[in-house]
């Protein structure tokens, strides 16, 4: 007990020293950007980010050794924002998520770590094998702990046809009879499993992901999200009305307990899904806005830092268009402003996108209502005509 106390005190002292160094490093970097690197006035932005990332990783390590993963989380995210190409930063993030029992997110971090290791020229197969085993263990743990849904991966080599999807769903129904209230097949991106993942082969072994739910409402939102160009989750009956506190709490719980965990699981085997449709970043930022309204500052900070780490990594995982690049930059700028408390009066990009989604939903509802009313009117007219015809015939 005494040894553990002394060890914690030692790590706490180290953390304080790192934080002091971090403060002075960033306060004086504009005056002498190269001082920390032995080259005054010559250090590049990349060099500064590399040193800052190194400090963040040491803070992560100290907090993990103190068994305080919650305090390590933001530092793990920031180390990735500063140096997204370094695979060990993603592994540390995976470790923090595992300690917090967030296994789907740990699996994704491990997958990205393995990809970054290969992308940056890592040739030691033993390291890649160990990372893949970690990735596999996290996926299996996530599946084991999932209560509201079950999952099936189906390998395929050619283009997926409609009849193939139907056969997959039939097999899923037979093997998972308790999870057939709503069955969703993800067609938004390629899924890979650690057992067969080979980043150097093209195309890699691909899998079709099928999710089945006990509760229809738990999975119904997936179809809406996958059909949108820009993702958003809305439950507003009126698109221009302000959320009450009760509505905000309800939306926050829906996002945090139902939607984000499922999206995180989907992304645990999907390296480069559609940036607009399935990245999961936009949903996290919209979730952060709900936390902000409820003044849950610590959770909001963690969610935004995680989203920024994801945004910083995206260009390494897939090719993105000019339009997507501009959107990514806008999201990063607004996320940074939110963390630093700047331009609070300015509406954030993700909130604007959410408003557009609400208006779309409202228009779809009007269209559905119009079509239903039209169908009912047509049926009534036909019924009236039939009655008149019968009356004429009888007379």
From TrEMBL:
Sorted keywords for this record are:
Cytoplasmic vesicle, Developmental protein, Differentiation, Golgi apparatus, Spermatogenesis
Matches recorded under PANTHER family:
SPERMATOGENESIS-ASSOCIATED PROTEIN 16
- What's the protein here called? Spermatogenesis-associated protein 16
What domain of life does the UniProt record list for this protein's source?
Eukaryota
Any one Gene Ontology cellular component term annotated for this protein: Golgi apparatus
- Provide the family line: Belongs to the SPATA16 family.
Pfam families with a match to the protein in the record: NYD-SP12_N
* Entry coiled-coil feature ranges: none
GO BP term (any one):
spermatogenesis
Cellular compartments annotated = Cytoplasmic vesicle, Secretory vesicle, Acrosome; Golgi apparatus
């Amino acid at each position: 007990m005494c040894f553990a106390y002394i060890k914690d005190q030692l790590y706490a002292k180290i953390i304080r020293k790192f934080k002091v160094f971090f403060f002075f490093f960033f306060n004086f970097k504009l005056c002498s950007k190269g001082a920390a690197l032995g080259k005054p006035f010559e250090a590049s932005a990349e060099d500064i980010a590399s040193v800052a990332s190194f400090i963040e990783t040491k803070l992560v390590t100290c907090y993990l050794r103190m068994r305080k993963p919650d305090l390590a989380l933001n530092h793990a995210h920031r180390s990735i924002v500063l140096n997204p190409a370094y695979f060990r930063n993603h592994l540390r993030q995976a470790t923090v998520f595992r300690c917090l029992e967030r296994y789907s997110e740990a699996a994704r971090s491990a997958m990205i770590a393995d990809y970054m290791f290969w992308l940056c020229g890592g040739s030691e197969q033993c390291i890649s094998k160990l990372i893949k085993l970690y990735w596999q263990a996290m996926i299996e743990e996530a599946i084991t702990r999932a209560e509201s849904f079950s999952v099936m991966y189906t390998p395929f080599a050619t283009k997926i046809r409609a009849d193939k999807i139907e056969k997959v769903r039939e097999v899923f129904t037979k093997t998972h009879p308790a999870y057939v209230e709503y069955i969703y097949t993800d067609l938004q991106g390629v899924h890979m499993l650690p057992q067969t993942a080979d980043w150097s082969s093209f195309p890699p072994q691909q899998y079709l992901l099928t999710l089945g739910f006990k509760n229809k409402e738990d999975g119904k939102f997936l179809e809406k999200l996958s059909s949108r160009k820009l993702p958003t989750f809305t439950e507003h009956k009126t698109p221009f009305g302000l959320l009450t506190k009760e509505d905000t709490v309800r939306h926050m719980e829906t996002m945090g307990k139902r939607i984000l965990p499922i999206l995180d699981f989907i992304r645990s085997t999907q390296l480069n899904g559609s940036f607009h449709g399935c990245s999961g970043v936009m949903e996290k930022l919209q979730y952060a806005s709900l936390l902000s309204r409820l003044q849950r500052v610590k959770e909001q900070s963690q969610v935004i830092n995680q989203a920024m780490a994801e945004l910083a990594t995206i260009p390494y995982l897939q090719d993105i268009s000019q339009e997507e690049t501009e959107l990514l930059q806008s999201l990063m700028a607004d996320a940074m402003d939110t963390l630093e408390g700047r331009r609070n009066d300015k509406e954030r990009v993700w909130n604007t996108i959410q408003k557009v989604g609400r208006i779309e939903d409202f228009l779809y509802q009007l269209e559905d209502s119009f079509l239903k009313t039209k169908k009912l009117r047509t049926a009534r007219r036909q019924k009236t005509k039939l009655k008149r015809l019968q009356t004429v015939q009888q007379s």
